[in-house]
Design goal:
- The chain has 424 residues and is α+β, with helices and mostly antiparallel strands.
- 21% of the residues lie in helices and 32% in strands.
- Strand 3 and strand 4 form a beta hairpin.
């Protein structure tokens, strides 16, 4: 005790008693000072009582007591109960007694003090009272190939080539830091480090739920040039896990969008972000059993309309060719929103929803050459010709040379780059 008296912390703690219970178990933790050492004991499933054989001493004890003081339990309310009638929730009670002070009694049922995660982290350094598989650190590695022009350099050669870009996002419970780096070898390197009290622990707790049961991509190898995410998960009392996936909505964990949004909301005020936080990447990718519904606007009307597509590469702001509901003619429209629905959630029956004919290339002209009729046609004429070519019947009694010429013309139309991929 002499060491703590000299350091002025001898009166910080008389005892701390923590009770945790959920529908499956009940655990208690007791911590007290004994001749300058912090002694702990706990009870849990299949245990009568177990005392800590390696108590915290001297400087380690002081650091722990200082951290406990910083949490300021004395300022907590007595009750944090969202609903005392709730059953399948965690329940906590904390008894906190400082030397010469009244004992504080705190109850928590589905609701907690603001710095609760810091408190849990501190008591977990004594005994793993909560989850033995607690996630203590994660590292996300993102990789893609980008056009050099994104660097906005006055270099014609650099603007014309593709470069490997890398991003890394790391969260550490112990240091409470979030570290985000971006790099393009020999061209760019940035690093941002954020210390946000309690944020890393809260995000890591969410991470564990996001990756529960997730095994990564079924592909043996992800092709180079495809946006890719590699995640490394470091647990307190179990082996680390590593997996890689293509960076799209179809292959990422179910709750990735919520997780990356949570991280972004913490650091966005200070951040110049890269592709890792780009919703156009992690928010796209149709899953099995889903339909792709696109909201489109015609160039002369402000109202949006739903159209279906099977093209998973279509993006917001793309110009597409669709059949007008009212005029029954082909019209140009712009994609304003892309959504994914199951059959039961679809905003309209898929079999009664018009289909996007095709995407319009950026360099496409109003009229273009048609190899079928050997002349220039517009979009509507192209559709009529393609329907006629598709409907050519070769099972009729005509000379073979005529059949061969009709088949040649049909194939010319079907293989044309302007041929509609989906008939409206």
């Amino acid at each position: 005790m002499n060491y703590l008296i000299k350091r002025g912390v001898y009166d910080l703690l008389e005892y701390l008693f923590v009770l945790y219970s959920d529908p499956n178990r009940k655990i208690t933790l007791k911590a007290r000072l004994d001749h300058g050492n912090l002694i702990t004991s706990f009870t849990g499933p299949d245990l009568e009582e177990k005392s800590d054989s390696c108590p915290l001493k001297d400087k380690a004890c002081e650091r722990w007591l200082r951290s406990l003081e910083d949490i300021k339990i004395e300022k907590w309310r007595s009750n944090y109960c969202a609903n005392s009638a709730l059953r399948d929730v965690e329940r906590w009670s904390v008894d906190y007694k400082r030397e010469g002070k009244h004992c504080r009694h705190i109850k928590c049922v589905g609701s907690y003090p603001e710095n609760w995660s810091s408190f849990l982290g501190l008591i977990n350094t004594l005994s793993e009272i909560t989850d033995s598989g607690r996630l203590d650190k994660v590292e996300f590695y993102y990789q893609n190939r980008i056009k050099g022009e994104k660097l906005m350099r006055l270099d014609a050669f650099l603007n014309s080539v593709y470069l490997d870009c890398f991003e890394k996002l790391a969260l550490d419970r112990q240091s409470e830091k979030i570290i985000y780096t971006q790099s393009i070898p020999d061209e760019l390197s940035t690093s941002n480090e954020y210390f946000l009290k309690g944020a890393a622990a809260e995000i890591l707790d969410s991470c564990k739920g996001c990756f529960a049961g997730f095994t990564g991509s079924e592909q043996a190898e992800i092709p180079r040039g495809t946006p890719k995410l590699t995640a490394k998960l470091y647990y307190r009392n179990k082996p680390a896990e590593t997996f890689s996936v293509m960076y799209n909505r179809r292959d990422l964990p179910e709750n990735w969008s919520e997780l990356i949004d949570m991280i972004y909301s913490c650091i966005s005020y200070y951040l110049t972000s890269g592709e890792l936080f780009d919703r156009k990447l992690y928010g796209t990718g149709v899953k099995e059993g889903e339909y792709i519904f696109c909201s489109v606007k015609f160039e002369t009307q402000g109202e949006s309309h739903y159209y279906l597509t099977n093209d998973d590469t279509i993006k917001v702001a793309d110009r597409v060719l669709v059949m007008s509901d009212t005029e029954n003619t082909l019209r140009i429209a712009t994609i304003t929103k892309i959504e994914y629905f199951s059959l039961t959630d679809a905003p309209s029956p898929p079999d009664k929803t018009k289909i996007i004919v095709r995407r319009i290339r950026p360099d496409e002209k109003p009229k273009f050459y048609c190899p079928f009729c050997s002349g220039e046609v517009d979009l509507n004429e192209c559709l009529k010709i393609s329907r006629s070519a598709k409907g050519i019947n070769l099972d009729v009694d005509i000379p073979d040379w005529v059949k061969q010429e009709l088949l040649r013309k049909k194939n010319v139309c079907m293989e044309c780059e302007n041929h509609p991929k989906f008939e409206p």
